[in-house]
Amino acid sequence: MRKSFDSLRGLVINDLDQSPDDGTVYIFINKVRNKAKLLHWQSGGFMLYYKRLESGTFELPDYDGSVGSLRLDYAQLVLLIDGIAITNMTRRKRYEKT
C-alpha cells in the first residue's frame, strides 16, 4: 500500500491494459484486506481515496485470479467499502439502457 498516484496509474495501464483517465474507479486492496485505495480520474486530475479498517476485513466476491481484476457497479463498490458482504446477494431484474 505504498503506491501513490503515478504508481497506481502505471498498474492500471500496464497490468490491466486500461486507460485510468476514463472516469472508472480502480480499487486496490492489500493482502491482509484491511486497507483499500481507490484511484479515480475527475476533471483535471486524479483523486486518491484511502481507507484503513480498525477491525475486520474487506470481503471480496469470488473472481478469476488469473485475470487479476473484477468489475463492480457503483452499488457493489459502496457495499464493499461499507463492509457489507456482496457474495450472496441476488439482483432483481431492472431496466438497463443498451
Care to describe what's here?
By secondary structure, this protein is of the alpha+beta class. Helices cover 19% and strands 21% of the residues. The chain has a three-stranded antiparallel β-sheet, with helices on one face. β1 and β2 form a beta hairpin. The chain starts with a helix and ends in a 16-residue tail after the last helix. The mean pLDDT is 84.
Question: How do you describe this structure in short?
Answer:
By secondary structure, the chain is α+β, with helices and mostly antiparallel strands.
Helix coverage percent of residues?
Answer: 10-25%
Lateral arrangement of strands in the main beta sheet: 1-2-3
- Element pattern in H and E: HEEEH
Query: How many strands, what sense, and barrel or not for the largest sheet?
Result: 3 strands, antiparallel
What labels would you give this structure?
single chain; alpha+beta; 98 residues; three-stranded antiparallel sheet
Walk me through the topology.
Layout: H1 5-14, E1 25-29, E2 35-42, E3 45-52, H2 74-82
Antiparallel strand pairs: 1-2, 2-3
